[in-house]
Amino acid sequence: MFAVLKTGGKQYKVQAGDVLRVEKLAADAGEKIQFNDVLMVGGENTVVGAPFVEGAAVQADVIDQIKGEKLIKFVKRRRKHSSKRTVGHRQKLTLVRITDILASGADKSGVKAAIGSGSVSAPAAAAPAKPAKAAKKAAAPAAAADDLTAITGVGPAAAKKLADAGITSYAQLAAVDVESFDAVKVKPEWVAQAADLAK
Predict the structure, then answer these.
(1) Given pLDDT bands bounded at 50, 70 and 90, which one contains residue 130?
(2) Domain with CATH 1.10.150 in the chain
(3) CB 3.0 to 4.6 Å from 56: which of 38, 47, 78, 134, for a disulfide?
(4) Distance CA 6, CA 109 (A)
């Protein structure tokens, strides 16, 4: 039985007993982890996911946290007053041994999910749901507001200034006293048209 799993932006075809070098995972040596992003499970019955196979997982033991080979990046600019730059890099990797391939029942296994060291965990990613509810509540009163740009002479900029001053409906604009209202320069024609539209 084999599986194709995805981790660290790469795909690996694995079998039980394989040793892999994957992008650094947030796990210590000796820990048991589970890869839940399985793209395909093969064997007697091949199952291809869309994009992932539901309920499938690959379990592995973390052997060690290692570094990859040293890569040298060398830049040289030719000609007069040229420059050279050398930069080295060693990628942080995790060495894992595949222990088991689960075709189903991955959510009931109780094994820690394999999470990359730079990725966000699921609870933190789900946190921004609250502001969306607040945005829906704020959008409800805005939906009840009238379109002030329907009045001749009121453009988007003037409508925004009126909204900032608290005037969002025709009735509110019709009740404005042109001479005493200081927030926006309101023309008498706007008030007359707003009174007609409010009826």
Answers:
(1) low
(2) 132-198
(3) 38
(4) 19
Output the average pLDDT for the chain.
Answer: 83
Q: What percent of the chain has pLDDT over 90?
A: 42
The 10 Å Cβ neighbour count of residue 75 is 9
Using CA atoms, how far residue 93 sits from 12, 41, 50, 115, 187, in Å, is: 15, 25, 28, 13, 69
- 140-159 pLDDT, tens per residue? 444 457 788 888 888 888 88
β 112-113/32-35 pair status:
parallel
Q: Report the alpha-carbon distance of residue 69 to residue 86 in Å, rounded.
A: 16
Place of tokens 């699921």: 122
Q: Which helix (H) or strand (E) holds 13?
A: strand 10-15
Domain 132-198 maps to which CATH number in 1.10.150, 2.40.160, 2.60.40, 1.20.1080?
1.10.150
